[in-house]
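One thing: can you check what follows?
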Amino acid sequence: MRHHTILLLLTLTLLVGAACGGPKPIHVGFAAQLTGPHSDLGVDGRDAAILAVEALNAAGGINGRPLQLVIHDDQGDPEVARQVSSALIEQGVVAIIGHSTSAQTEAVFEQINQANMVMISPTTSSDYFTGQDDYFFRITSTTSMQGRALARYVYTQGYTQTAIVYDQTNLTFSNSFKENFEAEFHKLGGEVELVLSFTSRIDDVRTIAQSLATHEPTALLLIASAFDAALIVQAFRQLNPTTPIFSSGWAQTEELLIKGGNAVEGMTLIIAFNPQHSDPAFQRFIERFDQRYQRPVSFAAAFSYEAILVLAKGLHQTKGSTTGLREVLRELGPIAGLQGTFEFDQFGDVRRDLYISSVRAGTFQVVTTIPAEELP
């Protein structure tokens, strides 16, 4: 505990969006993994949140009061995540944007509910949080929707058998995705011929690749971060260059393309994000993000930007207060996002279009759109 306390004291806290003097700022917490090899989601989310706050403040903020981000690094550690959330609650933030993975969100779930603290996660998708009367909202669709939709796609592509490799570090997400995929795949008549798990930062991915190559699977489903997926695919492709590889959207970031290189060409992923979406709001966001950060927009960036916009809509109605914020967010109705509209249900969950993307020439290219109304 002492170790984690020291880490918390060293946690980067960044205030963005307000100068000294003037109207009293409204503090908004942001918590995600911002350091280490699995920080791509958190860094993209933070950078997009900064842009969103700047745009809102330039337009007058919330009834004349500027938003101010209070940013903390949870380091991908559940204990640090709990310490970070405790610190943000004590600092008096009106809401928390975060966390970036389901495992860290689960770690703080009881904490935020006991504090009546609204949390909006851009990327947490585990079914663990589905249908609960709580203070948790999310911008992305659930693992049940994504896992089952991918199972249908894999099966309709002619693959009736597949192996699965999943990361136990983010088990709240990976196990939920795996179980939903397996249930739908079996229902269709498919067979999961091999299941392997690993613990990120501990297990050698070459061992995973060797086990896969020994079994010669018909197809492969990866449920892992971009960092780990890239390493596994590189090692596996050296032993088996032709097996089709499918993946959860967790890996769909620039990290996969950079670290995976030619090995990830042809890899197929599912996520509620279209990097080629034509919505003018999304195109403007792409331009601003590229101008500031000189890198492509990821799903984590887009969803984080939307999370700030959603929170701002709620705060406009509560005049910057936490009182009634949860109820207001639940009743917002259709929300104009960066890629069309979405809407919270009574539990803060959303249904959004899903996209099947393939890595082609070093980019993610959408090959199939699954409308929200057609999701399982």
Q: What stands out?
A: Residues 85 and 187 are 40 Å apart (CA to CA). Residues 2-140+278-344 form a domain with the Rossmann fold fold (CATH 3.40.50.2300).
